[in-house]
Amino acid sequence: MYRFLLTRQWVILTLVALLLIPTMIRLGIWQMHRHDERAARNQLVSDALSAKPVPVEELTAPGRTITTEERYRTVTAEGHFDTDDEVVVRRRTNADDEVGYHVLTPFVLNDGKVLLVNRGWIPGDRTSQTAFPKVPAPPRGELTVTGRLMPDETTEASGIKNLKGLPERQIMLINSEHEAARLGAEVLGGYVAQTGPEPKGDTPEQLGSPGDENAALNYAYAIQWWLFAVGVPVGWVILVRREVRDRREQAATDSADEAEPAAV
């Protein structure tokens, strides 16, 4: 009754099932790894945002790389904005996915070093594609700024190409090393996404806080793949039993037909 399992159709079906089971198990393990990675990143972000603010020079210095643990840490800095060397960062979006610019303004610290401050988003227009756009001015004089510490942007990490031949005072990536060369000054590694002082009047739209990655979705996908892996052998058994039942019924029908006496 089970000889049909040796037929070409059933051999292929069985081999496919045997291949699907470990594949689905491995896909579930991969999704669980993704869950753990996302959960760990969410924890790092949460810890950084809840940490007590510290002076920016406690976490960075000229030429220093911002680490994963330092990213999003709230820092403070005392000094003044230098709008003469202000630039805008092209092709940036706001919370409504409108394309515009980020305003990057050098903030000169009391010791003469420079901190790059991303003051927020402004909309673009046709003229700003070829010229420096109109940018709201920052507060004048000495002040204290607060913001989230961010690492330098790179093409490898962001996917944004650092194009050449851009209009004057427009850039594609925020990179302290490039800005140090442009300014001819000591620039602290990384930059700060400004959160304070609170915006007043016609000021750039400040950047939103980083959101949590949906780690729960990866966990659900992992469970789903493992359920599929369990379902494959269960489905195979159901198909085999159905085939056996159909063959038995067919055999019983054939036997009844053979036993029926021929009509006279």
From TrEMBL:
Keyword match rRNA processing: no
Region (Disordered): 192-211
Pfam family, one: SURF1
UniProt keyword list: Cell membrane, Membrane, Transmembrane, Transmembrane helix
Mode of membrane association: Multi-pass membrane protein
InterPro entries from the UniProt entry: Surf1/Shy1, Surf1/Surf4
Chain ranges passing through the membrane: 219-240
Location(s), subcellular: Cell membrane; Membrane
Family: Belongs to the SURF1 family.
Name the UniProt record assigns to this protein: SURF1-like protein
